[in-house]
Design goal:
The chain is an alpha+beta fold and 811 residues long. Among the domains are: 2-108 and 188-200, no CATH class; 109-187 and 201-345, no CATH class; 545-714, no CATH class; 736-787. Helices cover 55% and strands 9% of the residues. A four-stranded antiparallel beta sheet has the order 3-4-5-6, with no helix packed on it. Strands 7-9-10 form a three-stranded antiparallel beta sheet.
Length: 811
């Protein structure tokens, strides 16, 4: 029973299986007045009882151990049985087999080599294991994504080690050994003996006890199995536990690292569907709390192993963790490494998502001063994370990334830059993720490499993601913001040769950082992309109104149209058919230009002809001053097919009668014929929104002459009803331009007066109006004369008479 100094019972009694022969109390509360220096080092209180019990016919001696400093309510009562170590010289005498217990005044020092071996930092070299060599050769032979890094890793390690002083690793090992020996030292004041054997009764160090609780069942399996539930319970029992000594601090960190590593190894080898999200979360939590170097996790994953960069001094971890990792790698080398790397590299989605979360949590630690070998760690982490995201993204559909998707996360990773830049380039190339590679280049502002990569995609090189949908337009928009004239010129020409309409925008866009003069741009395009010259000339003429390029642009249009007519009888028949179809339309009908625009063909020669008509019949001022004779010579063989062009050119040469004849009888475009008279043959195909300069318009006399010619042609229309309709409409709408006598002389006698009644009525009204206007003008003129006479008389009166003398000698 337990009482305090006042004699009060403090807790329930302890019980033993048998009456003890010897009892020793060790740990907390042994000394009545503990000195302050030992307060923090006090350990749990145990009571050790020497006793014997019968096991059949054999009497077995040992020590029963249990806690005495805990109430039964605090924890379940646990008892441990400990027998003396077997000795070949042990006597069969019962007295000699009894175990004695005593507490000594001076504690003894005991060293645990097992603790030193577990806690001591050792160098971990994942790429030096001999078991990996066959795998490496296999990966090279099939060009797996990780195989290309082997020589890089080996060469890098050799380069770093050459810069270190000789014997540095031996000195480091000695230092770690000395430090670990301090951690493996323990004290005991309990002595036990049996016969002529004497031992120290020493409690197992924390790391040994916890390590033993983990346990690894090897069984008949090639890879030892772990009771994950038990491991998670052990981890939970350590949650929130504060270390009181340096040894305990190191031990807790070690055991958390090992728990996380072993749980992950168990999950990695578990059959599909047997691992739960809770177990993955527990592994992640243990690895995070233990701050295990992420390169250890990468080392046990074959597809990520060769992404490890060891650095100048290598990777140093606890010996127990190192042994667990190396044992697993050695055991699984015959299972995984002899298989096709492309198959073992594709892990389950659960494992990949765990690795993604684990590596992302490490990326968030960038800049923390507590991380040693930061450069090497985060280069390895970034390369591994890139591989994991690439593997996860293989199941994503082609096309741009969706919000919060793996593809968006992959893009975000490369956009914000990775420490393993060169390795990232190699990985993205090997996975055929060219668009992501271009984003990586953009993160480093490597403009030329971005354009080279986009060019590869556009020209047909495989891009697994398929994210660059409108590649040519993306190149155009990117070039507008590029400041390097040589790059803009090179890729502008390349784009113009593929897509002239987009390419010329690079040279024409006013918002571009690099600007080209029109002459310079034309020279560049003529040399590198002749097919885009026409499009650039269109931009200069129609958008910038540079009239000096009209003749050249017309020549391009003529080349396209005449070449098509020469080689294609179908094209010639199409044009003639449009004339026949248009003539067959009954009024009111659109103009011929509107008709062919609305019924356009999606062919280059057709669009070129529309542009040609716009230029030939335009009102661009100096733009209309093209070489008429040269154009007529070009279209001479196709006058039957290019009727509107001939009409426009006749108007430019003042051959108005011929032009009106073709408009009336060749096309049947009566509205355009009327416009021809009003505009004097200029700009009959001008844009609706355009304005004409008064200087370009003919005088009323010239317009009257043109209307007279048009009336003559209207009276020659073959269709009688159409002839009457068009003539009557012309006279009624534009009667002011005609002389009544001339019209009456031209109208056939067989026509009824009713057909031209509108014209006659308006003419008579006009005559009456003009007569009245004349009378008013005369009256106003008489009033003006009278007013002037009165003013003269008044002036004479004011000045009075004036006498002028004749000069001498005058008669």
């Amino acid at each position: 029973m337990f009482v305090n100094l006042e004699g009060d019972v403090t807790r329930s009694t302890l019980d033993f299986a048998k009456y003890p022969e010897e009892i020793v109390v060790d740990g907390r509360g042994v000394d009545v007045d503990p000195v302050p220096s030992t307060m923090e080092e006090e350990e749990e209180g145990y009571v050790l009882a020497s006793m014997a019990f019968e096991d059949g016919d054999v009497l077995r001696h040992g020590i029963e151990i249990q806690r005495w400093d805990l109430d039964p309510g605090e924890d379940a009562v646990q008892k441990f049985w400990l027998e003396a170590p077997l000795s070949s010289k042990a006597s069969a005498d019962e007295g000699e087999s009894k175990i004695g217990l005593r507490t000594v005044i001076q504690p003894g020092d005991v060293y645990f080599d097992d603790v030193v071996d577990k806690l001591r930092l050792k160098r971990f070299q994942p790429c030096s294991l001999k078991s990996l060599n066959p795998s490496t050769l296999s990966m090279r032979s099939v060009e797996s994504p990780t195989a290309m890094s082997l020589q890089r890793v080996s060469g890098e390690r050799e380069l770093f080690e050459e810069s270190l002083s000789p014997g540095w690793e031996t000195r480091r090992n000695d230092e770690e050994q000395q430090f670990a020996q301090r951690l493996g030292k323990s004290k005991s004041r309990v002595v036990t003996w049996s016969g002529n054997n004497v031992w120290w009764a020493v409690r197992n160090p924390l790391v040994v006890r916890l390590d033993a609780e983990l346990g690894m069942d090897t069984g008949n399996e090639e890879v030892p199995s772990l009771d994950r539930k038990k491991a998670i319970e052990l981890m939970n029992s350590l949650r929130g536990r504060e270390a009181k000594t340096e040894t305990e601090f190191v031990s807790l960190g070690y055991i958390r690292q090992k728990i996380g590593l072993l749980i992950f190894i168990s999950l990695l080898t578990a059959p599909a569907g047997q691992a739960t999200d809770t177990e993955y979360g527990a592994a992640e939590e243990a690895l995070s709390e233990g701050s295990l170097d992420p390169r250890i996790i990468l080392a046990i994953v074959p597809v990520l192993r060769n992404e490890i960069i060891e650095g100048k001094t290598g990777i140093w971890i606890h010996g127990g963790v190192k042994d667990a990792a190396e044992n697993f790698m050695t055991m699984t080398s015959g299972i995984w490494d002899t298989q096709n790397p492309k198959t073992h590299g594709i892990m389950s989605e659960q494992v990949l998502r765990f690795l993604r979360r684990f590596l992302l949590s490490w990326r968030r630690r960038k800049g923390f001063g507590s991380i040693s070998n930061e450069t090497e760690v985060f280069k390895s982490v970034d390369a591994a994370l890139l591989i994991v995201l690439l593997q996860l993204d293989t199941a994503s559909p082609r096309g741009p990334a969706r919000a919060k998707s793996i593809r968006a996360e992959l893009n975000n990773l490369v956009d914000h830059g990775v420490d393993c830049f060169e390795r990232a380039i190699s990985l993205l190339q090997s996975y055929n993720r060219l668009y992501v590679l271009s984003r990586l280049y953009q993160s480093r502002k490597m403009t030329e490499e971005v354009l080279i990569t986009w060019k590869r995609i556009i020209e047909g090189e495989e891009d697994e993601g398929g994210e660059l949908l409108d590649g040519e337009n993306e190149v155009r928009k990117y070039l507008i913001n590029v400041r390097n004239p040589a790059l803009v010129r090179e890729y502008g020409v390349w784009l113009a040769s593929r897509n002239p309409k987009l390419g010329v925008q690079v040279f024409a866009d006013g918002q571009s950082r690099v600007k080209f003069e029109p002459i310079q741009a034309l020279k560049i395009l003529r040399e590198g992309a002749p097919g885009a010259v026409k499009d650039f000339l269109e931009y200069l003429v129609f958008s910038k109104h540079h009239s000096e390029y009209i003749n050249e642009l017309i020549a391009y249009y003529l080349d396209i149209v005449t070449a098509k007519l020469e080689e294609s009888p179908e094209a010639r028949a199409t044009l003639i058919q449009t004339y026949e179809s248009y003539r067959a339309l009954r009024p009111p009908k659109p103009t011929y230009r509107q008709f062919i625009t609305e019924n356009t063909l999606d062919e280059e020669w057709w669009h070129s002809r529309l542009r040609l008509l716009q230029l030939l019949g335009g009102s661009q001022g100096s733009a209309s001053q093209y070489d008429v004779a040269a154009i007529l010579a070009r279209i001479a063989p196709y006058t039957q097919e290019l009727v509107p062009e001939v009409i426009i050119l006749d108007g430019r040469q003042s051959h108005h009668e011929e032009a009106l004849r073709l408009l009336t009888h060749g096309l049947g475009d009566y509205d355009t014929a009327i416009n021809y008279c009003l505009l004097g043959g200029s700009s009959i195909y001008h844009p609706i929104s355009g304005t004409l300069s008064p200087a370009t318009l003919p005088t009323r006399i010239e317009q009257a002459a043109l209307f007279h010619s048009l009336l003559t042609e209207f009276l020659k229309i073959d269709d009688v009803s159409n002839r009457v309709e068009q003539t009557s409409s012309l006279l009624e709408r534009f009667g002011g331009w005609f002389d009544v006598g001339d019209v009456l002389g031209m109208i056939p006698d067989t026509w009824s007066v009713e057909l031209v009644s509108g014209f006659l009525v308006s003419a008579l009204r006009r005559i009456v109006r003009e007569r009245s206007e004349t009378m008013v003008v005369k009256a106003l003129s008489g009033a003006d004369n009278l007013k002037a006479s009165v003013a003269f008389v008044d002036r004479v009166r004011e000045t009075g008479p004036k006498i002028e003398m004749e000069a001498e000698g005058t008669e």
